[in-house]
Amino acid sequence: MNFMREDYLDAMDVQLLKDFEGEFPISYAEALESAQNVIRDFKIEDMVLSFGKKACTYYNYGLGSKGWEFVFTRENNGMPSYYVDGATIWNNDSLPILKAPWNKEVLFILVDKDGIFRFNWRGAARQTSVLAANVELLPFDDILERAEQQLMYQHVVLTENGYDEVYLRIYEIRLGSVLVNIPGKIDVGRDIPAWDFLYEIRIVADSTEICDKYVTCFNAIDGSYIEPRLQ
Predict the structure, then answer these.
(1) Share of the chain above pLDDT 90, in %
(2) CA 47 and chain centroid, separation
(3) How far apart are CA 62 and CA 177, in angstroms?
(4) CA-CA distances (angstroms) from residue 42 to 45, 65, 80, 216?
(5) pTM
(6) Residue 50: what are its φ and ψ, rounded to 5°?
(7) CB neighbours of residue 30 within 10 Å
(8) pLDDT of 79-126, one tens digit each?
(9) Which of 125, 120, 226 is nearest to 178 (CA)?
(10) Residues near 126 by Cβ (< 8 Å), separated by ≥ 6?
(11) How many Å apart are CA 145 and CA 67, to the nearest integer?
(12) CB 207 within 8 Å of CB 86
């Protein structure tokens, strides 16, 4: 038994792409209602929908059922925690002090016409106290300056590798809540406001173009580079 979500596919997955064509036996709205009912039944609080995508299940390499997978993350003071699959660390000699204390909290619920196919709650945590309220955020212009410095530092090596062309384009900036470690403690973390910079790098070499997407995160209070996806 296995499953595949629509956003994991690429143009080479010709057969799998066919599986995702057309209407599904259960609508997005019906599946979302089922997922939200499960959250209410388990009395899970402060988890909000990040996104939902078509998903297919497979048995012995054959198509089993068609449905939707929903991704929920924790929300703090109206700021959601954004889900990102993983982290890319560009310089292991200068890892950020603030990083994830454990696996990022995220709830996956896959629903097909027969009901809940998959329930996977990673990094489940319990909030116990508010450390500071109404914190002052660093001016956004200062965040932009820090982001420019950090991205140049991370990727300067690309300009030294003899590529024909190297482009970096920021396509989204978002403010949210992230969970980071408290130095010296292993069983507790803290949620802080942070800025995600989503960007793509396009490299041209020998008439071949490669384009990949990345995320770099900054503490919204002091502008420091942090990595809430890296333990």
Answers:
(1) 52
(2) 14
(3) 40
(4) 9, 25, 20, 33
(5) 0.85
(6) -90, -50
(7) 15
(8) 899 988 766 777 666 678 899 898 889 999 999 999 999 999 998 888
(9) 226
(10) none
(11) 43
(12) no
